[in-house]
């Protein structure tokens, strides 16, 4: 049975994107590939408001999340933790054998700029990891405020994960002075999974050059060397690069401002709908994500029953809570290609299912 995903990743992929993937293969050392690679750089750099290169990694986001801390940490990495993905980044750092410290907030609370300043003031750290939009609990941290603190510590390399916010809100890498931005394909970009992007600053590459254990697959200098030739270190997932090119054309056609406005509007539509039902936003007031909503299940709805009916009767799937929040929260994505009409269809179906479950 076919159904449409409104979970916060992977999300629905358009027919146009799927068709873009179905093209004949080209050699990854051919001039055709170099032309493809180079043709998408301006679009990617435009989305990040950066002059830095944007590497294409054939991996999910975790590949470059792990690779970047391995390449860049000489002393100790500070992991800002406020949800499942950012919590996991500390665990990954420890599994890599890196010295790592935690800056913990409760799930749903944004990363606190003041606490970040205090932690970095110890001088212990030379790398910091931040998740801009904690998808697990729908919490968006204030990136400009955090970046202002980071600029006070020029010896600290910042790595920011924008997996679920990239292209949904403006992320001005150069203006903010962020060293490394990471994103994945299957969330805000509405591509199938399997591709991730990483954009490093010059400072980050200089730091990587000091590391003797960069390995190969995620070696930033290997990426840079190949980037200069319009290529990737190893054979990349060419169909997803076709899809990325097609998506960048869609984004250019819509216009960035219109794309941001659409995400904000659809996000608000869903939020207004849920609050009117009596649900509450899970993350801290003023820090709700713009690309998804995470609601506290204040009406004690049987979320498993809700999703079962939603899928079988209406062909839609939402998320019933991530990890320890399963059953207590639910999440609805408005990332990617959603429109007023597609969100209205989902909310109408949710109204019907909730009515069947006794919620008005
Ligand atoms: C989904 C997600 C990840 C992990 O992505 P994978 O593609 O599974 O590696 C990392 N960070 C955030 C914020 C995410 O939403």
UniProtKB/TrEMBL annotation:
An example Gene Ontology molecular-function term: alanine-glyoxylate transaminase activity
Needed cofactors: pyridoxal 5'-phosphate
Biological processes, Gene Ontology terms: glycine biosynthetic process, by transamination of glyoxylate
N6-(pyridoxal phosphate)lysine: modified positions: 187
Keywords linked to the UniProt accession: Oxidoreductase, Pyridoxal phosphate
Domain of life the protein comes from: Bacteria
Residues binding substrate: 331
Domain Aminotransferase class V stretches: 87-271
InterPro entries: Aminotrans_V_dom (IPR000192), Aminotrans_V_PyrdxlP_BS (IPR020578), PyrdxlP-dep_Trfase (IPR015424), PyrdxlP-dep_Trfase_major (IPR015421), PyrdxlP-dep_Trfase_small (IPR015422), SP_NH2Trfase/AEP_transaminase (IPR024169)
EC number: 1.12.-.-
Gene3D superfamilies reported for this sequence: Aspartate Aminotransferase, domain 1, Type I PLP-dependent aspartate aminotransferase-like (Major domain)
Similarity comment: Belongs to the class-V pyridoxal-phosphate-dependent aminotransferase family.
Protein name (Swiss-Prot/TrEMBL): Soluble hydrogenase 42 kDa subunit
Organism listed in the record: Lacunisphaera limnophila
């Amino acid at each position: 049975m076919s159904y449409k995903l409104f979970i916060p990743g992977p999300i629905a992929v358009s027919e146009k994107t799927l068709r873009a993937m179905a093209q004949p293969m080209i050699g990854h050392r051919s001039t055709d590939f170099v032309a493809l690679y180079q043709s998408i750089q301006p679009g990617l750099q435009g989305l990040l408001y950066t002059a830095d290169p944007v590497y294409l990694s054939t991996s999910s986001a975790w590949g470059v999340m792990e690779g970047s801390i391995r390449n860049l940490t000489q002393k100790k990495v500070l992991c800002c933790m406020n949800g499942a993905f950012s919590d996991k980044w500390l665990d990954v750092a420890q599994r890599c054998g890196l010295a790592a410290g935690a800056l913990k907030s409760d799930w749903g609370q944004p990363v606190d700029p003041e606490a970040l300043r205090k932690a970095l003031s110890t001088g212990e750290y030379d790398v910091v990891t931040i998740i801009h939009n904690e998808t697990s609990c729908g919490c968006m941290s204030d990136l400009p405020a955090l970046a202002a603190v980071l600029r006070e510590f020029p010896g600290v390399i910042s790595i920011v994960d924008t997996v679920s916010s990239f292209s949904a809100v403006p992320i001005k890498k150069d203006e903010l002075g962020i060293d490394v931005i990471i994103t994945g394909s299957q969330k805000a970009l509405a591509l199938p999974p399997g591709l991730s992007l990483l954009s490093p600053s010059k400072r980050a590459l200089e730091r990587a050059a000091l590391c003797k254990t960069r390995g190969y697959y995620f070696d930033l200098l290997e990426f840079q060397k190949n980037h200069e030739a319009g290529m990737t270190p190893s054979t990349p997932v060419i169909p997803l690069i076709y899809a990325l090119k097609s998506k960048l054309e869609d984004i250019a056609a819509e216009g960035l401002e219109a794309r941001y406005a659409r995400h904000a509007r659809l996000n608000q539509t869903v939020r207004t709908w849920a609050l009117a039902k009596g649900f509450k936003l899970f993350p801290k007031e003023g820090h709700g994500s713009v690309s998804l909503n995470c609601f506290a299940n204040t009406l004690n709805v049987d979320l498993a029953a809700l999703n079962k009916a939603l899928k079988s009767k209406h062909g839609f799937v939402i998320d019933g809570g991530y990890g320890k929040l399963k059953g207590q929260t639910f999440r609805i994505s408005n990332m990617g290609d959603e429109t007023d009409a597609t969100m209205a269809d989902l909310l109408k179906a949710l109204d019907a299912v909730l009515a069947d479950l006794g919620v008005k």
